[in-house]
Design a protein that fits this description.
Number of helices: 5
Number of domains: 1
CATH class: Mainly Alpha
CATH architecture: Orthogonal Bundle
Helix content: 40-55%
Distance between the termini: 35 Å
Strand content: 5-15%
Order of helices and strands: HHEHHEEH
Structural class: alpha+beta
Radius of gyration: 17 Å
């Protein structure tokens, strides 16, 4: 992943509404949701969502498929996994095996707290 792609993804998630949409669609997995369902679930006016969907689709975080008169949105998980890989690729100066236990440390705690 290139830095410009990572920045575009972060920019698209910099809105609370878009972050909520993405997290909801991650929960739904491959089933995805149509726009009206997303609006109902997040208690948002449907008219306000098209702008947010456009930003998420353009960044590649969402895929969209036409189903009759509805559009079904899904989280594009491979892209998020690529972003995570991009963020941690240089973990422990290129020796990720040294960082293996860090994922088990609760947020806000240091690895030393776990000893």
């Amino acid at each position: 992943m290139q830095q410009t792609a990572a920045l575009a993804i972060f920019e698209s998630l910099s809105s609370a509404v878009r972050l909520d949409i993405y997290r909801l669609l991650v929960k739904r997995g491959t089933e995805g949701m149509v726009a009206g369902e997303i609006a109902t679930e997040l208690q948002l006016p449907p008219a306000n969502l098209s702008f947010h969907f456009k930003a998420l689709v353009q960044s590649g975080l969402l895929t969209v498929e036409q189903e009759g008169r509805f559009q079904r949105y899904r989280a594009h998980m491979p892209l998020m996994l690529d972003l995570i890989d991009y963020l941690v690729k240089e973990c422990c100066d290129g020796h990720p095996e040294q960082c293996a236990g860090l994922c088990d440390v609760p947020v806000g705690a240091s690895p030393a707290d776990q000893a």
